[in-house]
Specification:
Elements (H helix, E strand, L loop, with lengths): L1 H16 L1 H4 L15 E2 L4 E2 L1 H27 L5 H18 L5
Antiparallel strand pairs: 1-2
Helix pairs in contact: 1-3, 3-4
Length: 101
């Protein structure tokens, strides 16, 4: 039962990461997540192309968490290393996007 709960939480977390992709790519507008091209609390302006690259990292994180959730659910032996890697990626992109992320 715990395995299923963890899998569902990881999948949901991955889906939430999609917000970090769709806003920089201007696919949707989210009221609480304003499009901007800066990182590190507005201290570093990376431009439109740069923020789209960050959006791709958010998409990679989203995909990683969803795949990790599926891997846990299906008892794949590599779920732990994937979860660790995608968690580190998530922490880095969250720190870059702080405080919005």
């Amino acid at each position: 039962m715990i395995r299923i709960i963890v899998a569902v939480v990881l999948i949901l977390h991955g889906l939430i990461h999609l917000m970090g992709f769709v806003v920089p790519w201007r696919l949707v507008t989210i009221e609480d997540l304003i499009y901007k091209t800066t990182l590190l609390s507005g201290k570093l302006d990376i431009g439109d192309a740069g923020i789209r690259m960050i959006g791709l990292f958010w998409l990679l994180g989203a995909t990683g968490f969803v795949v990790a959730g599926i891997a846990i659910f299906t008892l794949q032996p590599w779920w732990q290393i994937l979860t660790l890697g995608v968690t580190i990626l998530s922490l880095i992109i969250c720190l870059l996007g702080w405080p919005d992320s």
